[in-house]
Amino acid sequence: MGRASEIKNDLNFDGKVDEWTIFVMGVQIGSRSDKNFDQKVDEWVKHGKYGYRNRVDNDTNFDTRIDEWVYCGEFGQTERIESDLNFDGSVDAWEFFELGHFTNGRYDLDYDGLPDSWSFGKFGQVVEQHWSLDGSGKPDKKAFYVHGVKIREEFDLDHDGVFEVVKKFDKFEREIDP
Q1: Which domain holds residue 139?
Q2: What CA–CA distances, in Å, run from 96 to 18, 48, 67?
Q3: Which of 78, 89, 34 is nearest to 56 (CA)?
Q4: What are the DSSP calls for 19-82, one per residue?
Q5: What angle do CA 104, 82, 44 make, to 5 degrees?
Q6: Is 111 in the same domain as 148?
Q7: What is the tens place of the pLDDT at every residue in 123-171?
Q8: 122 Cβ neighbours under 8 A, 6+ residues apart
Q9: Do the domain assignments include residue 122?
């Protein structure tokens, strides 16, 4: 396989190693990092055959357990992120990307194993969100965005698939009188 080497870095200059980077024949194959400087590894990065990252595992709440998994394409661009939002060991959020830009996501906000919120993106920004407020798995609330600003909400009050109530908003997200 070739000769491996490891570079150790002290990122906050406290005399303790916070980042370990591993190379084989000059190509980076992985790294580990202590992001909050508590002497425990919080991020593990694996690199593919060209040296680009292909997987990142994160401990976002610093409890020593991985709760976010980032899957990357051949050239290191993010393709999918799975997250354990309530830190119970189960994935609650699935976000998808094309060319590194967010395209859509599914979220289990009540932690019952089923998505009850969905987001849709264009050019990396959320343009539409749907929620199942009654737990049926069918959207009964929708919100629409332009440049990150909510412009409209729709509500299906009787859960028949028809959104009877529409609210419009100005550029400051203040409701416009109907």
Answers
A1: 103-178
A2: 30, 20, 17
A3: 78
A4: EEEEEETTEEEEEEE-TTSSSS--EEEEE-TTS-EEEEEE-TTSSSS--EEEEE-TTS-EEEEE
A5: 135
A6: yes
A7: 889 999 999 998 888 999 999 999 999 999 999 999 999 999 999 999 9
A8: none
A9: yes
Question: Is 160 within the bounds of a domain?
Answer: yes
The answer on 72 and 1 residing in a single domain is yes
The answer to whether 126 and 148 are in contact (CB under 8 A) is: yes
Q: Which two tokens stand for residue 63?
A: 């409890």
Shared domain check, 71 and 13 = yes
Report the mean per-residue pLDDT for the chain: 94
Count Cα atoms within 13 angstroms, Cβ side, for 22: 14
Q: How far apart are CA 169 and CA 151, in angstroms?
A: 5
**Residue 43 lies inside a defined structural domain of this protein:** yes
- Counting the structural domains of the chain, the total is 2
Domain identity same for 124 and 165: yes
Each residue's pLDDT tens digit, 42-68: 999 999 978 899 999 999 999 999 999
* Domain identity same for 2 and 72: yes
Q: Is residue 135 part of a domain?
A: yes
Assess whether 132 and 64 both reside in one domain: no
Residues 6+ positions from 171 with CB-CB distance below 8 Å: 149
For the entire predicted model, the pTM comes to: 0.87
Long-range pairs for 72-79: beta carbons < 8 A, 24 or more residues apart: 72/48, 74/48, 74/50, 75/50, 76/48, 76/52
